[in-house]
Amino acid sequence: MTENPDAAGETSGGGQRRELTARLAVPEMDCPSCAQKVDKSLQRVDGITDATLQPTTGTANVTYDPDRTSEADVIKAIEGAGYEVVGGSDAEGDDEDNQATDGVDIAPPSEVWTSPRAKKTWLGAAFVTLGLLFEFLLTGQNVTVASVLEYPLHIADVLFLGAVAASGIPVVRSGYYSAKNRSLDIDLLMGTAIIAATGIGYFVEAATLAVLFSIAELLEDYAMDRARDSLRELMELSPDEATVLRDGEEVTVPAEEVDVGETVVVRPGDKIPLDGTVIDGESAVDQSPITGESVPVDKTAGDEVYAGAINEEGYLEVEVTSTAGDSTLSRIIEMVQGAQAKKTESEQFVDQFAGYYTPLVVVLAILTAAIPPLVIADPISVDVAGYGFTFAGDWQTWFIRGLTLLVIACPCAFVISTPVSVVSGITSAAKNGVLIKGGNYLEAMGEVDAVALDKTGTLTKGELAVTDVVPVGDTTEDDLLRRAAGLERRSEHPIAAAILARAEEAGVGDLPDPSGFESLTGKGIRGEIDGETYYAGKPALFEELGFDLARARRETDGGVVAEEATEADDGAFAEDALTSLEREGKTVVIVGTESELLGAIAIADEVRPASKRAVERLHELGVERVVMLTGDNEGTARAIAEQVGVDEYRAELLPDEKVDAVEELQAEYGEVAMVGDGINDAPALATAEVGIAMGAAGTDTALETADIALMGDDIGKLPYLYDLSHTANGVIRQNIWASLGVKALLAVGVPIGLVSVAVAVVVGDMGMSLGVTGNAMRLSRIAPERMGGETGQETSA
Length: 797
What we know:
The chain has 24 helices and 33 strands. The protein is α+β, with helices and mostly antiparallel strands and 797 residues long. Helix 8 (328-341) packs antiparallel against helix 11 and helix 11 runs antiparallel to helix 23. The two termini are 35 Å apart. Residues 20-86 form the HMA domain. It holds the Pfam family HMA.
């Protein structure tokens, strides 16, 4: 949907002003110059307050004041720019919120080869073929059949004029709308060229230009329709209907009519219609359309499911947790569409360049047609690298060359080179469980020099479990667990959940309820139990409290052996006990009071199977530095870093220190991507050039805050993302420079007679437009493969 922040305003009577949004399909609006023409036409309609035009989807979202205009006027304005509107329905307004109409999100598939335009093109092509036959082969039968202003018309001429009428009139009509809207685009240039050539009797050139350009337009329409297919496939994942349990009966209703809290029935093979929680049944669910996971996930009561996922085998009853418009899939589709609307730096450069390029070449075309005949009295021969060229001053030759330059002036292939690449890349990523919020982030990710990775939940699974319970003194394991769990019951940290789970498993009995609970950021927690203050946290917290843990932690940062303590006066732990636990990659939580240690609890987080290979693959793809940033202790950080193979790690970092670490990486290496959970790492994610959230499916905050979201908890998608983005940048550069290079070569070849009108159309316009579109579509063939039990390693075609 399109939201307009000014949708609610004051009317003259002091009330709220209503604004409606029409969502319309304009399939033929498939290039930036087309959108510019439509925009200029809409600007002349009083009452239109905002317009979002997306050539890549063929849609127009137009916000208007219903008291001053109507949707019919909006449609009339778009058609006044020369484009047919396929969809549209009057909106129902809301006095407080501006809601878009139930219109279209993408133009419907086009019947390109059987459309009225196509039929006229084929008729024109038949006339041209017959005309060429009479003009060059059946010259004896090419008799005069009529005359106009004493100018004889032969059979071939009549056939060529028939081709101009069939294929050229639609072009001239579009050119008229361009002139009407003061838009110097390909339609105006080609329409002008066809009229001019016909007017001075160059029927062959006029007919050839009309037919070839019409064929080029059909091919470009076909290519754009193929590009739109990837987004259509994404949108088709969302089911239209849902089977709901109402009053004990199953009722099939449109998905948008199901409310939050209702129960939907999903049978084997059905798509899950809405986001929800399983309340009955068990099944394996293929949620690859949302998260990109290649293996179906087992779902039982209490598990989340997403709209668009496919129920593989069992019967499920799902309690709906979001409406159709707010489902994870809906938000993904909406964000993909929004991403295509944001212009990248390359697009902005191209638009600016095209603004100078087209007028300049048009002027050159006029000068080419007019100046040489005036200044060249006698033929001039020029030898260039052994090739001889003769320049004569006849008007016909230079007019055709000017006409050819006019064709080359069209920047279509150049202008669409970036948008089609962005569309292909972003929609391909979305179908593989990676949501890229804008083309600028697609470009930026391909340019990163360093990747910073959070540890917990990124390189590791984030599923903590207690591995060791180490009581000291007279404290028993049960007593240690009871005190620790009593403190942690007020905390929402994953470590707290692990300790509580272990206490429940051990059956330690009723837990004490602490008072005066306080979280000590980055260090631990404290609370009062039975009138005494207890602490649970990092060893550093207890060292601040005055305990000497040097003997138990003999190995310091980097593995350097510390000077041996003369006495373990707080001596509860065995020598090197804490260090040995940390060396194994375990997080150590010490429990005690200000005067006594009760013991330590070690917690481990399993490294993801794909983490090691993902880091290796990032290096193979050219990422200069991969760094792990964590708030965990030195020993745990070192152990995980050695397991996954990062270049360096930084441990015991508070959130603001992660920001400092990202800034240091930027200063040393250049552009940085930060991968985290999208919430706790928000400051660091915002500081990096690209912020990437892990496991964002169903998480509103992560979907909204991250630049890129890995919808499944799969670090193996990170190399795929980098490869896709890096390849996309290469494709964009190839398209831009190939378009410019071909245009430049053709422009140089025109004055010396090496480039004809047909070559200019076939190569410079049609060929390059198809070329850049086909090159962009290569991005859809880059796909993740399985990596260490998870998807990850990508395949480039």
